[in-house]
Structure formats: C-alpha cells, structure tokens
Design a protein that fits this description.
Layout lengths: L16 E3 L5 E5 L5 E4 L3 E12 L2 H7 L10 E12 L5 E14 L4 E5 L3 E6 L12 E15 L4 E4 L7 E3 L4 E4 L4 E8 L11 E8 L3 E4 L14
Antiparallel strand pairs: 1-2, 2-5, 3-5, 3-7, 4-5, 6-9, 6-12, 7-9, 8-9, 10-15, 11-14, 12-15, 13-14
Length: 226
C-alpha cells in the first residue's frame, strides 16, 4: 500500500519556503519566525503550530481593505512543517533579498511576518475605478508565496522604452519600482478581455518584472474564506 504512494511523501526540508508539487506550499516553521498566511489556506501541519486569525498587525491595516481587495490573514507561529494551498492554484515562491514586490491581494498566499508590508493605492489608475486600485506591497529580507490560476509567466520589462500591457484580471504581481498606467481600448471581445468590447489594460514600464497568470476569470477571487 505504501510503495505506490512513496513518490508523494514530503521531501527533506531545504528552505524556509518551497513547493511540494506545483499546488502546495511547504513552510519550515521555527519559534520566533512567524508567518502571515491567507485564512483558510492550511491543509496540513506537523509539530506544534498555533494560529491567530486577524492579529493586531493585520487589524491596523485592515481598514485599507474595505474596498473588497483584501486578503484576510492569520498569524502562524511555532515549530514544525506547515502545508498551505488555495483551491488547487499553482504556488509561486519568491525569496526577497532586500527588494520588494507589489501583489494582487487575491494572489497572496503567505509571507514572513518580519517583512515590511502594507496596502497601497496603485498610482496611475485613479480613473479606472474597480480595476484593482489597491495592492499589497511587501519588502525586506524574507519569503513570499503567491498563487496563480495556472502556470504563470514572468515578463522582464527590461528597462526599455516599450511598455508591457496586462489584463488586470490576469495580473498577479509586479516590481513596485515599475511605472504603471491604465489604458482603454476598443477591441472585439474575442480578441482582448472578456467585457463588452471595451478593454482595459495596465501598462508597465521601467526596470522590473510582471507576473501574469493564464486566467482572466476572477469570479473565484471574490469568494470569502472563513
């Protein structure tokens, strides 16, 4: 019975955060190195790990999530192995080395509690109400895990003059130093977006990356996790 399942056994720990397959995150928990994770994302754990939903650090920022762009978080602390997932979405692990990333809150799975973070308005999109005007910006030294509806692509903007255009519903994250602006175009529905023919894109320029998922369907993003 055990032999056919041996290939699915947990691998030895090699990093604070790593993938177990493409749809699950494994976190090596240690006392004093807490984690902030999406509420409802825990699927299994080993050892002694405690959970605190809506901790004080999150409550101070929660008022900025009244727009509906928020990601309810819980604090995880203790020693052991913690496994997280989000409805079978692909998991992307990033090790921040003193830099930062701006993340769509619905794609944020977990991050080290010691990182600097906050909710910020996306500049350059004020006239495009409802098109993801708020993002979670995370910076410092530590680990971040994102989710993607399918295997994502990471586009290097390269610092050239050409802009990179992304459908807001397919956007996962980007380098916070990139310049962002909104663009409206009128295209056939079958070519761009899924609207009535009037398509919105986000234009990025500068030096940095943009993470894009192969999905424009945002209906599951609006589901509340208890």
């Amino acid at each position: 019975m055990n032999q056919p399942l041996a290939g699915f056994a947990p691998a030895p720990v090699t990093a604070r955060m790593e993938n177990h397959g493409s749809h699950m995150l494994k976190v090596a928990m240690q006392t004093g190195n807490d984690l902030l994770a999406r509420v409802g994302s825990m699927v299994a754990y080993e050892g002694f790990i405690q959970y605190e939903p809506n901790p004080p650090a999150v409550r101070q920022i929660a008022r900025d999530w009244m727009t509906g762009e928020g990601a309810p978080l819980m604090k995880c602390s203790g020693d052991g192995l913690l496994y997280l997932a989000d409805y079978g979405a692909d998991v992307v692990v990033i090790n921040l080395n003193g830099d930062g990333i701006s993340v769509n809150a619905t794609n944020l799975l977990a991050f080290d509690a010691g990182l600097t973070w906050g909710v910020e308005r996306v500049k350059g999109l004020a006239k495009f109400a409802g098109q993801g005007l708020w993002n979670t910006r995370i910076s410092g030294q530590g680990w971040v895990a994102l989710t993607s509806r399918g295997t994502p692509i990471v586009v290097d903007c390269g610092g050239g003059e050409d802009e990179t255009y992304v459908d807001p519903d397919a956007l996962v994250a980007w380098s916070p130093n990139l310049k962002v602006k909104g663009k409206r175009s009128f295209k056939a529905q079958s070519l761009i977006g899924r609207g009535s023919g009037e398509a919105y894109q986000m234009a990025f320029s500068g030096q940095g990356i943009v993470v894009v998922q192969p999905s424009e369907d945002s209906t599951d993003r609006l589901r509340f996790r208890g």
